[in-house]
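Dear support,

Our group has been running a series of protein-ligand predictions, and this particular one with flavin-adenine dinucleotide is the one our PI (initials K.S.) wants archived with full inputs and outputs. We had some confusion internally about which version of the output was final, so please treat the block below as the authoritative record. The input we submitted was:
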Amino acid sequence: MSDRPADVRIHDFKEVDSGLSAAEAIAEAERCLQCKKPFCIKGCPVCIDIPAFIREVADGNFPAAARALKEQNMLPAICGRVCPQETQCEGVCILGNKETAIRIGAIERFVADRERENGAELPEVARPTGKRVAVVGSGPAGLTAAAELARAGHAVTIFESLHEAGGVLAYGIPAFRLPKDVVNAEIDQVLALGVRLKKNHLVGRSVSVDELLGYDAVFLGTGAGLPAFMCIPGENLNGVYSANEFLTRVNLMRADAFPESDTPVLHGARVAVIGGGNVAMDAARVARRQGAKVSLIYRRGEEEMPARRAEVLHAKEEGIEFLTCTNPIRILGEQHVTGVECVKMSLCGIDASGRRSPEPIEGSEFTLDVDMVVQAIGTSPNPLLVSLIPGLERARKGNVVVDENGRTSIPHVYAGGDIATGAATVIEAMGSAKRAAAAINAMLKGE
Ligand code: FAD
Ligand code: SF4
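Confirmed final output from the archive:
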């Protein structure tokens, strides 16, 4: 896929990758060996029959390819864009040992985009069972559980606290990686299966726990949206954001269009983003598109960064300055941020995470002049609802304890996605939601 030039794309929020043409998708699909024992299916948490859909693409039969995809995955245009394919399906493609792995994600995106442009077909829905299922949260986990259960004939209602559905797909991942019309079209497909969506419904506040537990089954997909902070001096100054707040303001609340939209966001001329994961890359690239000079501060080396290589490359192309082996120790300013005091770090022995551990270098302190700071150092499970459900077992970090089928400590309550695993990925959230939906379906059928 070809990327738009960096000096052009930093002025807008349009998608960076242009996607494959039909000819390119067919040529890529023709490289597939159609392995008898395909590892790629095992590498996909929702178990798409990858050789089958790729074979249809190679034959130019795009609607059949879309059908095969949607049998297992109702969000293929989203997954084709944001899945970390290099560690999932493509990471185990046998061709990767000899040449390059089949670009499964890019082909999946092509098929899904083509179907969206030409009118999508819906998978079959079973006859109504008369059972009612509540799904809390409309992120990838909630949407996947809802789609699976609606297809099995249950009456599914999704409760979403925000005014838009999609969870991180809507408020976190910026449009230049995941356009919002793509997200909305795939959500519409889930709703077309008969799923009811109640937006602006915060379960635990505007919907009671008693009402929730009155459903025949409950799926909790409330995510891990609680931001972590460094707890260093100066964090309460104006101009300090969590990445979640900053991205939500820009992506979901359209602060980028202020004053036409009524959500303001500070436009820092010099911005420090703290962190080395995908969220940090997104925050840095959003700030860059708002005209800022952006420095990314990360306490370990570039090799240790958890962000995808492609995101690091894109951020660098877009002129983000990488200050690696650097740790912020104080945010400076009176009322508003004026700088960040940092210390340089040296990398020593391997720590419990398997990475070189950073140690401060005495006397290496320096000040970076900035007028905005965005902290992207991790998130933990949303505590509001799960802390209100009596008898729901939670682990030390606040995530709901589940078995391999998403069962919680309460018989008819299941959970999946980031609320169960802690912050992970879209496709892992979907995989766990599918397993939980299968278990809910079996329970409702009395199996
Ligand atoms: P979420 O997507 O967080 O959805 C939870 C939903 O529940 C939200 O809509 C929330 O409003 C709602 N909710 C919470 N509490 C309540 C309540 N009490 N009542 C009603 N509704 C409630 N993963 C990738 O695979 N690739 C990427 O490129 C990628 N980039 C990312 C970029 C950012 C900025 C972030 C933050 C994450 C990224 N991730 C990425 C991670 C991925 O998005 C998450 O792992 C995934 O969204 C988790 O899905 P979920 O459905 O469990 O939770
Ligand atoms: Fe690969 Fe993700 Fe598509 Fe599964 S959903 S085949 S992991 S890109």
